[in-house]
Amino acid sequence: MSTANMFLWDDAALLASMLVDIRERSVERKGCRVSGYAVSESGVTPYPVIKRKCRDGKSRKFYAHHVVMMDKYKRTGATAMWDTDLFQVSHECHNPKCVNAEHLELLSAEANRAKNIHCVGHVACTACGVRMRVCKHPTLCLTTVDSICSSCERPCTL
């Protein structure tokens, strides 16, 4: 586990204050909660980053979606942080700026990579409301695709 995540896992007040900031600096957009935080300075990843001073006085960087996932994970009763060497936080919506807890899940690095390659998701037809699984992954992806519904045979946005 990264040092930054260890500090966050052990500091409930820090986690709570970051969650409030994330909620205040994000907007609802097409089912996603899109973070207003800037992405990493290196430009290597498209994920929003939050900087905070930890109990040891050092400033650390946290990915916004990791903060939200940590809260979600702790609410399940978990007593230890997930192993970041084995699991990644995956966005079911494929939006790297999304901080909607409902769109986040823990997956192995291999499963997350496979899921991110050409997935069209599991969605509801806008014409009749029938949910169709277009995604072939064991954990469902969320996305929209213009198509003809296989249930009502009308044009819809899946």
CATH class of the largest domain: Alpha Beta
Please state how the strands of the largest beta sheet are arranged side by side.
1-2
Distance between the termini: 38 Å
Figure out the total of helices: 4
- The helicity comes to 25-40%
CATH architecture of the largest domain: Alpha-Beta Complex
Major beta-sheet overview: 2 strands, antiparallel
State the secondary-structure class: alpha+beta
Provide the low-confidence segments as ranges: none
The H/E string reads: HHEEEEHEEHEEEE
Task: Return Rg in Å.
Answer: 17 Å
Number of domains: 2
- CATH topology annotation of the largest domain: Homing Intron 3 (I-Ppo) Encoded Endonuclease, Chain A
- Could you give the count of β-strands? 10
Q: What share of residues are in beta strands?
A: 25-35%
Could you tell me the mean pLDDT? 79
Global geometry: globular
Question: What topology emerges from the helices and strands here?
Answer:
Blueprint: H1 3-10, H2 12-24, E1 26-29, E2 32-35, E3 49-53, E4 59-63, H3 64-75, E5 87-91, E6 104-108, H4 109-115, E7 122-124, E8 131-133, E9 146-148, E10 155-157
Antiparallel strand pairs: 1-2, 3-4, 5-6, 7-8, 9-10
Helix pairs in contact: 2-3
